[in-house]
């Protein structure tokens, strides 16, 4: 029987073996996912075919990005179904059509800014758009910054620095916006989401999270909710501690937890467990798609176990179908 996660109005049925790929294909790590206006699922992954497109039943439609992307990391889709593909291996953000035509490139391919210089980009991680179409980029592993660009890719401003104080970051890993223009930043190793106005002024932070990695704003303009993917322990000393994830948390616009999905008993490949939630998207039915970097994370979570072949093949993409009763 498929596992059921969550409680109350937020119950989800795990769709086992969701992705139906061509023979011999493997997704490997799925860094991020996005869903377009026709509920097609875009799977930005680190396999041989970087962008795999599926329908909402998991049937394969097409792929693109071969030879273009270096290391998939973040994916966002706008109201016109343009894809914003963040490549942390190439230090770029590329705006693409749904068939892979590149419309805009921000950053210089294969030329990172100096480490912690504050200049874009050094291993950028994700993008989000303001209500006016301005582009926010979280940056990332080799910087501790958020950059704001015009819709055509001209830098407007940047904010953030390394540290633990408000407005400082320790791996700025993901970014989202809402209809009012607030900016939400997953400050992963500071175990929080920070909230800013559209000009980068610190407003508040959400705590009681464990290594927030994925971040998705949903639920509509009047009452947005957020789904947050949390990584499990990253250290040997707390590797087997229960109730630290990996898991998903659903919170309201104030950061108050509404529901939590999984994570009580650590990572795993069984139905109802997560490996390393890294990207999240929802479709028009409210179903959740989770991209996981289970291949990269395997040795951290299971240093003494051989990785099952299914992890590299397809297990790094999960669909959670909302239970409608």
List keywords for this structure.
mainly beta; NHL repeat-containing protein; 6-blade_b-propeller_TolB-like; NHL_repeat; glycoprotein; about 325 residues; single chain; 5-stranded antiparallel sheet; 27 strands; Neuraminidase
In short:
The protein is mainly β. It is built from two helices and 27 strands.
Explain this structure.
By secondary structure, the protein is mainly β. The protein has one domain: Neuraminidase (6 Propeller), CATH 2.120.10. Helices cover 5% and strands 42% of the residues. The protein contains two helices and 27 strands. The protein has a five-stranded antiparallel beta sheet, with no helix packed on it. It has a four-stranded antiparallel beta sheet with strand order 3-4-5-6, with no helix packed on it.
Q: Please work out how many helical segments DSSP would assign.
A: 2
Strand order of the largest sheet: 1-2-27-26-25
Taking the sheet with the most strands, its summary is: 5 strands, antiparallel
**CATH superfamily heading:** TolB, C-terminal domain
Task: Give the H and E element order.
Answer: EEEEEEEEEEEEEEEEEEEEEEEEEEHHE
Query: What radius of gyration results from the CA coordinates?
Result: 18 Å
What is the helix content?
under 10%
> Would you tell me the overall average pLDDT?
97
Pfam family, one: NHL
NHL repeats: 128-152, 160-199
Organism: Bradyrhizobium nitroreducens
InterPro entries: 6-blade_b-propeller_TolB-like (IPR011042), NHL_repeat (IPR001258)
């Amino acid at each position: 029987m498929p596992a059921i996660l969550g409680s109350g109005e937020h119950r989800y049925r795990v769709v086992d073996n969701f992705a139906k790929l061509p023979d011999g294909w493997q997704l490997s790590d799925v860094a991020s996912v996005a869903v377009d206006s026709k509920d097609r699922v875009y799977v930005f992954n680190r396999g041989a075919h970087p962008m795999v497109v599926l329908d909402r039943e998991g049937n394969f439609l097409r792929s693109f990005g071969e030879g273009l992307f270096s290391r998939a990391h973040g994916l966002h889709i706008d109201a016109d179904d343009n894809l914003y593909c963040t490549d942390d291996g190439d230090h770029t953000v590329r705006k693409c059509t749904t068939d892979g035509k590149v419309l805009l490139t921000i950053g210089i391919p294969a030329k990172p800014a100096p480490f912690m210089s504050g200049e874009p980009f050094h291993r950028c991680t994700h993008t989000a758009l303001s209500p006016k179409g301005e582009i926010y980029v979280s940056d990332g592993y080799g910087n501790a910054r958020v950059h704001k660009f015009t819709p055509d890719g001209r830098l407007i401003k940047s904010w953030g620095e390394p540290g633990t104080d408000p407005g400082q970051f320790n791996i700025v890993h993901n970014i989202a916006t809402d209809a009012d223009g607030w900016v939400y930043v997953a400050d992963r190793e500071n175990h929080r989401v920070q909230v800013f106005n559209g000009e980068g002024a610190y407003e508040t932070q959400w705590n009681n999270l464990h290594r927030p990695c994925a971040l998705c704003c949903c639920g509509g303009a009047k009452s947005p909710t957020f789904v947050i993917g949390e990584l499990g322990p990253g250290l040997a000393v707390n590797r087997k501690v229960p109730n630290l994830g990996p898991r998903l948390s659903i919170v309201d616009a104030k950061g108050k937890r509404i529901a939590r999905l999984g994570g009580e008993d650590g990572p795993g490949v069984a139905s109802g467990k997560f490996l390393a939630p890294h990207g999240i998207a929802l479709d028009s039915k409210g179903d959740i798609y989770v991209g996981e970097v289970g291949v990269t994370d395997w040795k951290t979570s299971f240093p003494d176990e051989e990785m099952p072949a299914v992890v590299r093949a397809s297990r790094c993409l999960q669909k959670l179908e909302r239970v409608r009763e």
